[in-house]
Design a protein that fits this description.
Keywords: Cytoplasm, Nucleus, Ribonucleoprotein, RNA-binding, Signal recognition particle. The chain is mainly alpha-helical and 146 residues long. It contains 4 helices and 3 strands, in the order H-E-H-E-E-H-H. The termini are far apart.
Length: 146
């Protein structure tokens, strides 16, 4: 806190980490709704945990804030909550990882890597089955009402 009062806050301070909200990488959002990368590079409904996983795996100093919300996000569901803070620069102002000099480079990398996560590839198969079961249940309820 004292460092913030004097005005000399180092980039290694947690308050100086860059923030990445899932909305920045979401291909279901428009630019007005908060997407910050091209739609063809964006991911379908990324979560803050997935962003944290890919950034930590590449070697970033990562901090997950579960209860933070993106201000433009109207949906208050748990899956839309959270933001990831990433240390982009060291004390001397140089990038922590030379291949990621800007916040945009980090966002593009995360969006490129999230679809390759094991949780993503498994979820795709599992969600289809649960949808089919849900439809079957609805048909059954319809018959009972008659």
């Amino acid at each position: 806190m004292a460092a913030g009062a004097t005005g000399s806050v180092s980039p290694a301070d947690k308050d100086r980490f860059i923030c990445i909200y899932p909305a920045y990488l979401n291909n279901k959002k428009t630019i007005a709704e908060g997407r910050r990368i091209p739609i063809d590079k964006a991911v379908e409904n990324p979560t803050s945990t997935e962003i944290q996983d890919v950034c930590a795996a590449v070697g970033f100093n990562v901090l997950l804030e579960k209860n933070k919300m993106y201000p433009r996000e109207w949906n208050r569901d748990v899956q839309y909550r959270g933001r990831v803070r990433i240390q982009l620069k060291q004390d001397d102002g140089n990038p922590c990882l030379p291949q990621f000099p800007t916040r945009k480079s980090v966002m593009l990398y995360a969006a490129e890597t999230i679809p390759k996560l094991k949780t993503r590839t498994q979820k795709m198969g599992g969600s289809d089955q649960s949808l089919q079961q849900g439809e079957g249940g609805k048909k059954g309820k319809g018959k009972k009402k008659k």
